Amino acid sequence: MTMLHDILEFNKAFVENNQYERYKTTKFPDKKLIVLSCMDTRLVELLPNAMNVKNGDVKIIKNGGAIVSHPFGSIMRSILVAVYELNSEEICVVGHYDCGMQSLDSNSLLQKAVERGASEETLMTLEHAGIDLQSWLKGFNTVEEGVKTSVDMIKHHPLLPKNVSVHGLIIDPETGKLDVLVDGYEHT
């Protein structure tokens, strides 16, 4: 059986047994908080529990490294939607120690893409079209740098209200301990 079939089989029982009922909430975050975190598998359950948030409390946005790489990309758009349409009032950017985005080697990633079917011609076409694949696939040197850069880009976005606090945290993926890197209340 494939992964999709396993998921659909489980889902059928999940719905038939009304297991969804304990997750019912609205689209508005009860704690009026947005959490931008890394997609790391260790954080799926650890991060919400370490932050004392449950289903319905926060808007969670995940991507590799909790990076806001472009001020007008999909991450920033999601943050602005959560602020203006879903009544969020604070933002926590949560990076983590031992992050795979730290010192990500874009050359290695591109080589793996070629090995899995991306053609050299495609890479050349993208480069000639002005896409800097090296920069686009770049991570960060330290998790602190990554979090601070994302916090700075969010906080200084021209469409973000000045009264929205933007915090920067780093979580230990082994223990769940949170370290404050940027206290957004001090910078509001």
Relative helix content? 25-40%
Query: Which class best fits the helix and strand makeup?
Result: alpha/beta
Q: Which spans of ≥5 residues are poorly predicted at pLDDT below 50?
A: none
Radius of gyration: 19 Å
3D structure, described in words:
This protein is an alpha/beta fold. It is 37% helix and 16% strand. It contains seven helices and five strands, in the order H-E-H-E-H-E-H-H-H-H-E-E. The chain has helices at 3-16, 43-50, 74-84, 106-115, 120-128, 133-136, 143-155; strands spanning 33-38, 58-63, 90-96, 165-171, 178-182. It has a five-stranded mixed sheet with strand order 2-1-3-4-5, with helices on both faces. A hairpin with a 6-residue loop joins strand 4 and strand 5 (178-182). The longest helix is centred in the N-terminal third of the chain and has 14 residues, at 3-16. It is globular. The model has no long low-confidence stretch (mean pLDDT 95).
